[in-house]
Amino acid sequence: MWNWRRRPERRLRRMPVSDLWHDWGGNATAVYSALDTVPVQSSGSRLALGGGVTVALNNRLDLYLSGTYQFAVGSTDGGKRNGITGRAGVRYVW
């Protein structure tokens, strides 16, 4: 834990993230308004890399921020699958 501005109640925590996902080849179809159908092809592997930080303002209050970038590894069914996620928030413990 690293003290931010030399105050013991403010601590900065860093968190690296990496995930490897693999879809085993499910076969589904999404139906919209009983007219249009969209085939969902889900076979392939994806790698997600990212990180986050949490700042503890005191023993009860934290601020956090995180994000990841996900991209295809190897060949995938259904085309390119890239994505980003982000989260920000406040955590209060009572």
TrEMBL record:
Classification via SUPFAM superfamilies: Autotransporter
GO cellular component: outer membrane
Listed Gene3D superfamilies: Autotransporter beta-domain
Alphabetical list of InterPro entries matching this protein: Autotransporte_beta_dom_sf (IPR036709), OM_autotransptr_brl_dom (IPR006315)
Protein name: Autotransporter domain-containing protein
Upper lineage: Bacteria, Pseudomonadati, Pseudomonadota, Betaproteobacteria, Burkholderiales
